[in-house]
Automatic annotation (TrEMBL):
It comes from Pisolithus tinctorius Marx 270. Residues 169-188, 245-264 are annotated as: Disordered. This is HAD-like protein. Pfam families: Hydrolase (PF00702). One of its GO terms (molecular function) is phosphatase activity. Signal peptide: none annotated.
Length: 264
């Protein structure tokens, strides 16, 4: 069904949506030297609760399920960082990502990233993928940018921050009655892509479009969530996204990809 032509800018989550980092998180935490030696395993129900949280909060949440494991938050994070750093330079984009980002960039649709990852990790994860992330032209809001101002998704602050500070949109910072009518209209021009329900909830609380797009790992489909903010469209992958349904330029009929920025 065609939607009103209202989308003027797009904000993306990063981990598990644009790049395949969630498999690294699972591998490092459950299958390597952190939980496995204790006979423990991170289930998808636990993992779903980690998604969108800031680093220390996520670590505390994870360890709360394993009170008998003698790991402090700092020890866990130190071990995890060493292991993950070896994998980040090899992560790959997920299906349809290169096509969509190149398409939006070619049509001058403002795009940004809003991620709970620290900037050092963003750089490690994206340095080898500049044909994609170079198209954002530095418009990546990360945990460092919003430290002390948010507890992580589903808090909506990072999305309003990305819209206002990275894209220059007049969306304000609050939610609910603190948002003016003009700010609300500006927020409705934005569209958020997320792979996690807390991120979907954050985007909808921020007022980015009256509908939201959820692109989950198949393992998340059976996880129960609470809250009133639910996705209006669920895709198996970004490959299924039809830009014209959101008032965005359609893909070329010949299916040809746009040349990356480095090749122009």
């Amino acid at each position: 069904m065609a939607r009103p032509a209202r989308v003027e800018y797009v904000i993306f989550d990063m981990d598990g949506l644009l790049i395949d980092t969630e498999s690294v998180y699972t591998k490092v935490t459950s299958k390597h030297e952190i939980l496995a030696p204790y006979g423990a395993k991170m289930t998808w129900d636990i993992k779903a609760g980690l998604m969108g949280r800031l680093e220390r909060d996520a670590a505390a949440y994870l360890l709360s399920f394993f009170p008998d494991i003698p790991l402090t938050i700092d020890t866990y994070l130190s071990q995890r960082t060493v292991l993950q750093d070896t994998h980040w330079p090899t992560v790959q984009p997920l299906p349809g990502v290169r096509k969509l980002i190149s398409h939006l960039h070619a049509h001058n649709i403002p795009i940004a990233v809003a991620t709970s990852s620290q900037r050092r990790n963003v750089l490690l994860k994206t340095a080898h993928l500049q044909d994609i992330f170079g198209l954002f032209d530095g418009r990546i809001a990360c945990a460092d940018d919003v430290r002390g101002k948010t507890i992580g998704k589903p808090d909506p602050y990072i999305f309003s921050y990305a819209a206002s500070q990275k894209l220059g949109r007049g969306v304000g910072e609050g939610e609910g009655d603190s948002v003016t009518e003009e700010e609300r209209r500006e927020r409705e021009k934005g569209l958020v892509f997320e792979d996690a329900i807390p991120g979907v909830q954050a985007g909808k609380r921020a007022g980015m479009s009256s509908e939201s797009i959820w692109v989950p790992d198949v393992n998340l489909l059976n996880v129960e969530y609470s809250g009133t903010h639910t996705p209006d469209q669920t895709l198996k992958s970004i490959e299924e996204f039809k830009p014209e349904e959101w008032g965005l330029p359609p893909y070329p009929e010949n299916g040809q990809l746009y040349a990356p920025a480095s090749a122009k």
